[in-house]
Amino acid sequence: MEKPKAVLFDAYGTLFDVYSVGLLAEQLFPGKGEALGVLWRDKQIDYTRLVTTSNHGSHYRPFWELTRAALRYACKRLALDLQSAAEDRLMNQYRHLSAFPENREVLQALKDRHVVTGILSNGDPEMLGVAVRSAGLEGLLDHVISVDSVRKFKTHPDAYALGPQVTGLDIKQIAFVSCNAWDALGATWFGYRTLWVNRYGLPFEELGTQPARTGNSLRDVLEFF
Amino acid sequence: MEKPKAVLFDAYGTLFDVYSVGLLAEQLFPGKGEALGVLWRDKQIDYTRLVTTSNHGSHYRPFWELTRAALRYACKRLALDLQSAAEDRLMNQYRHLSAFPENREVLQALKDRHVVTGILSNGDPEMLGVAVRSAGLEGLLDHVISVDSVRKFKTHPDAYALGPQVTGLDIKQIAFVSCNAWDALGATWFGYRTLWVNRYGLPFEELGTQPARTGNSLRDVLEFF
Q1: Which of A49, A202, A203 lies nearest to residue B53, judging by beta carbons?
Q2: What is the 3-state composition of chain A as percent helix, strand, coil, each rounded to the nearest 5?
Q3: pLDDT of residue B84
């Protein structure tokens, strides 16, 4: 099989560690940091699906707003009193999530092979810009693609269609990398050659479709080449 | 405001107790029954959204199949060895979920007021038929509407549109009742006059829209009249 000409990465959970908010959450709410981090993330994804499924874009709100809404929900659900100063601190932390340690090395290895690189993310352009700059990845990414332009979140086909549209490549020429099983599944359904990076030893989705590859680090993307 | 001419109820979680599988789950997997019940339900909803968001119907599978897939996922996630006999028992239990105790009384009160009654559910027709018969609700429901005919799950607008289509009523003449906050939100967005029955003391979704009414029992639907 022909080698991919481009690799697109999911951002949140894949390049950036969404659970790196846990430390601050634990400082603010001792004993509840981890639970808050998990519920916040689950609800954030939940909300992307809810607005996208419900009305084809008319209930769309940028990822940043849904992230804030999810934080408020998670705190209410856990009976945590979220004051606005704490909310701002947690949201600011989300803007500057830790990057996974292998990101730079893997992106550099792809650039050395003259592979087009990019992000295809639910994040809105401003969030993505800050995250990419904070992680020092600017020079290593040819494209930073946000679903914001189509006002639908992954796993909607209009979101995944941005990959071929922006790169000008055929879907079969693009590899897609995500640590989120649902995203790896959605991308595979859409037609990408997909690597699921299973960072946390989870089962894959039980919906009868498997990604082209499964690994445990972004480095495994190099096996496409 | 004019009184509703019809009331449509969500089924799973609203008329039928999705957590009533917990007892059998606990027998089969001591110490893990509650966790399995919760994760099974969460994943089931997750899968309805995933297939509906991903491809406008082409990845649709009936609720029964998604329920089985969700059970398999939940067991793998919790490292429980699900043998096929146990799977069949749990699925059979799901087919015969406990009905909430106030169902009959509330439906009867609506019939006494000459209100059209029905279910509008993600469940497929066979599942719904068995559940309705098991609960002895046949004579009290004018319509049992499954999203299966449109191959999209709530909160997709095509699913909610079945209410006016099947009853022949205007959306403003129909009250919708759900114990699931996401469903109450989706129905409100679609245009129904919605009662959210908050059985478990949870926060509502933080997406800026509130249902017309919030209560803690199906009986609260009578306040529309």
Answers
A1: A49
A2: 50, 15, 35
A3: 96
